[in-house]
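hi! just following up on the protien thing from before. the input was this:
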Amino acid sequence: MKSKFRSAVAHNEEAMINTEYKRRSVAIYCLVVCTFMLVGCEKGEQATDQETERHIEFITVEQGTFSGVTDHRLVAVIDQSAWETLWSKHASKVLPSPEVPKVDFSADMVIAVFDGEKSTGGFSIEIVSIAETSTKRVVRVVSRIPAPDAMVTMALTQPFHIVTVKLTDKRIEFDVSSE
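and the predicted 3d structure came back as:
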């Protein structure tokens, strides 16, 4: 009788161990599967963003540190009248005033970034890239600040960058970072 009892207890213990082992195995399996799914989704989203964003070529019209535009502006110009107004303000410190650069607004547009008036030299702003997705055009801009111990000119400056790019009806988004 004792052997039957021990046999039954041993069988129950073995069954409990098997059941616990199965539970842990299932839990580990689920954890591994969920981890792979999350990593796969994350990589899939990144790949999708990279696939749908394409680089857009642009041509610099003018870039420098002296402008009549003394406030911070991020501008997209799509017609001749607005372009003439912007250029007139921008070139207002130059005598004689330069002619308005020609832009074919039936095919192109102007993107201009102005960093406002600075109390010294050493500042700059640059459109480093333009990319497009299915819904928007992203203009990536870097605003550079001189190091605290940098030797700079002691003059008021107004950093700017003006470019032309193919015309779009998509939303223009500016992504500005500082260095």
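The mean pLDDT is 84.
The two ends are 85 Å apart (CA to CA).
cheers
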